[in-house]
Amino acid sequence: MTTITPILLCGGSGTRLWPLSRKSYPKQFVPLVGEDTLFQASAKRLSGADFSAPMVLTNSDFRFIVTEQLSEAGIDPAAILIEPEGRNTAPAVLAAALWLEKTNPEALMLVAPSDHVVPDAPAFRAAVAAGVPAAQGGDLVTFGIKPAHAETGYGYLELAEDPGDFTARPLKLIRFVEKPDAARAQEMLAAGNYLWNAGIFLFSVKTILAAFAAHAPGLVAPVRAAVDQGKPDLGFLRLDPEAWSTAEDISIDYAVMERSENLSVVPYAAGWSDLGGWDAVWRETSQDTRGVALSGHATAIDCDNTLLRSEDDSLEVVGIGLKNIVTIAMPDAVLVADASRAQDVKDAVAALKKKKAKQATMFPKDHRPWGWFESLVIGERFQVKRIHVHPGAALSLQSHHHRSEHWIVVEGTAKVTVDDEVKLISENQSVYIPLGAIHRMENPGKVPMVLIEVQTGTYLGEDDIIRYEDVYARE
């Protein structure tokens, strides 16, 4: 039986969901709808008897987040390919196909973004199964979503026939349609033979490689070189950066799909969203009878069609008399917007970047392979952090030119190295790290270790780290 290998694309920044989604920690890693993150939900949805272990394409900054979240979901990936830089979806899909050509050349590839919401996973898997015969027969299969409204934020797929009752089966695709204006979107909705383009594809390794050779031959040589010259690194494959940099930055739609004739589309009507804005999150969140959607730390009084979310346990958000308003509160930033302007959040991010506000791109929690930290207080010559270290994890052996540190353990036990001395520090105990001392903290226990770090010095930036030894092979 032909296996289906999920190819999870996991490199986007999701700026339209700022301030919860940012470049350093984008929306796919956040539990926006439900308890799982979008990435975990995607991996679980594309698992089961008909699927082999997934491949993930991501960037270096996210590689340990990917492995941590897959581990939490109980999924062992077949491969994680590290893109040296973002080059859009065509090079990413081609890299996955070239890797599979070596390891499982008869496989079918199911390419999917990792930040979509699909509430009915069994229905989606049934739609995938419906597309398998066409993919085995040499078609490039895409999946079209039944439009719920005249959306201007999506591309569309024009079918050769009316999808009828939206039974999942391959239909002939005439063409891809660019994102329309409002009037054209309304016309296509009324026509009935246009579907939203979900950006999800199913094809065989041989078929997609032939399509690249025919329609985007200039991509093949640099991407093949990037894969062939890639270097294994702690379970990842780092694609060769020099070869990768010469690949064209282009989407798979433009590079291959829009130029191909062997196209089929499977209609899907069981619910889908790419969560492309806070208005989409509002639609996917449980609402009361007045259309108000709340997080656990938000309260609405006499509000209508409003989304209120607090992402901080210590911060309560209260709305009074609001209509069509989105409010998202983070520890370091708050968004208040008219719901009809949800797509303009990216403009706010651009404005913050222009004024060099760190909130534009940096998440309050800085995620590292060993855990995470967050700054609690920052002064001119001091900083206070909370540091969370996973069981069995260790920070690098390091020193600093410009700061000393004082560590106070508040949960668990820390194994601390300071120059030639190694000792265990338990809850309510502390240790001082002098300026220039070579030091490391480790969590030898089976529960998370949390400490408060007080830094003092003339410079407190994260680049003031000299690493001597690092189990995660960071530079």
Please report the number of helical segments: 11
Strand neighbour order, sheet with most strands: 18-19-20-27-22-25
Question: In this structure, how is the largest beta sheet organized?
Answer: 6 strands, antiparallel
Number of strands: 28
> What would you call the structural class?
alpha/beta
CATH topology of the largest domain: Spore Coat Polysaccharide Biosynthesis Protein SpsA, Chain A
Unreliable sequence segments: none
What keyword list fits this structure?
6-stranded antiparallel sheet, 5-stranded mixed beta barrel, Spore Coat Polysaccharide Biosynthesis Protein SpsA, Chain A, 475 residues
Q: What features would you describe in this structure?
A:
The protein is α/β, with parallel strands linked by helices and 475 residues long. The chain has three domains: 4-268, Spore Coat Polysaccharide Biosynthesis Protein SpsA, Chain A; 281-354, no CATH class; 365-469, Jelly Rolls. It has helices spanning 38-45, 63-72, 89-103, 121-136, 182-191, 205-215, 217-228, 241-245, 252-255, 278-284, 345-354; strands at residues 4-9, 55-59, 79-83, 108-113, 140-145, 156-159, 171-177, 194-204, 231-233, 236-238, 263-268, 292-294, 298-301, 306-310, 317-320, 325-329, 334-338, 365-368, 371-378, 382-389, 397-399, 403-411, 414-418, 421-425, 430-433, 439-442, 449-457, 466-469. The strands form six sheets. It has a six-stranded antiparallel sheet with strand order 18-19-20-27-22-25, with no helix packed on it. The protein has a five-stranded mixed β-barrel with strand order 5-8-6-7-11. It has a four-stranded mixed sheet with strand order 12-14-16-17, covered by helices on one side. Helix 6 (205-215) packs across helix 7. The longest helix has 16 residues, at 121-136. It is globular and about 75 Å long. The two termini are 43 Å apart. The mean pLDDT is 93.
